[in-house]
Amino acid sequence: MTRRTRAKNRSRRTLITVVTVAMLVTIGSCDQTDVRVLEREPLFRLEIGRLEDQLDIITRNGVLPRLRTSVAMQDGFVFVGNGPANKVMEFTSFGDLIRLIYDPVQNPEPITLGATGNSGDEGSGRTRFATEYGFGQLGVITVDSRRYLYAEDHLPAERSVYDDELGVQLNRIVVRFDDEGTPLDYIGQEGIGGTPFPFIERLAVTIRDELVVIAKTMDARFLYMYTREGEQMYTARIGLDRLPIPDTETDYIAVLDEIVPGVDQYRIYLKVSYYRTATDAETGKESGISLDHSRVYWLDLTSGRYEGYYELPASDDEHSDQHYELLGTTIGEYAYLSTRIDSGETRLLIMNDEGRVIRRRSLYTPETDLVIREFALSPAGVLTALLGYTDRAELVWWRADRLLPGAEGAGAVDDET
Known about the structure:
With 417 residues, the chain is mainly beta. It has one helix and 29 strands. The protein has one helix spanning 3-29; strands at 41-46, 69-74, 77-82, 87-91, 97-102, 119-121, 126-132, 138-143, 149-154, 161-163, 168-170, 172-177, 183-188, 191-192, 200-205, 211-216, 220-226, 232-239, 253-261, 267-279, 286-300, 305-311, 325-329, 335-342, 345-351, 357-364, 370-377, 383-389, 393-398. Strands 2-3-4-5-7-6 form a six-stranded mixed beta sheet, with no helix packed on it. The longest helix has 27 residues, at 3-29. The protein starts with a helix and ends in a 19-residue tail after the last strand.
């Protein structure tokens, strides 16, 4: 072998080494620990208090009221349902209050809004008004493309119904308000004026303005879907003792974490976690249960069958207790999932129904004195949050819609890989 041949071989080995190192560096950069940050865009702040444009999350005797405060967003307008005050506020994205539906028994008379709805607001191009409504107890809210508001209300004992079969009190209804705040009617199980629901877990709307109600009892979850006119379309019962099991030979404990509706397809998405009994390596005795893996299934409402599933990414060694929450779905049936990574950091995954991670991003929110964190996912993919602190509340959003395939500047796959 000549010197020139040996030199060429050394050069080839050196080149292979360099390429191998470069590949390892590239693979390492794709690890879950190296994830891009999705910038949070602040919208506006709210003061804590009881006035019409303030949020009542005031502690009573040092305890935060166990009443629900929720957020919804439609076409850039932000809706806040404040359970402790029994009121719903609508704001522009700049924080201007343009609509208020409130219980006059619990709230002072509005100063900035006219009850008749005849005061113009040039900044928003809409009419600013306040409407009195005697909520029994306001729960969760949602809004459709017409800006019709759907608000959960808790009925008094004399109007509730006991269901012998379910073994629960039926005492929830969904009140409909038009885009001027006028109460139209209420929706129960059969539709307009129907039987009250059990505990309502979630309200949502599809791209066709169909209302979806997710309710629950101790042993089942229920889905009810209605046309935009309020007529019943679909119902489904998901028994907690009849969840899909990946392997009947394995002693899995199946837990239904979240259930959300599809946005443009008639589907229900179920996030199910599977736990197994953990055994102490030294003693061989059972030491509790541990998470094995999680899946997202979808059930077709027209056929009543499970049509598919995908597994969620496994946790890494650094975040072994990682547990994803299914926030909702978007147009195109992309699922948004989140998990808390560290103090102030939340990991967002966007997955398609083939189980592929389309995008992976980190969201940062200050957590010092944080008492409420509520998310709302729009059908287009914008993620809005209400962050309530002891001295203020912040409305923010993340333009995650720009990450979806087909959006300007977005690719078809995760750009970390």
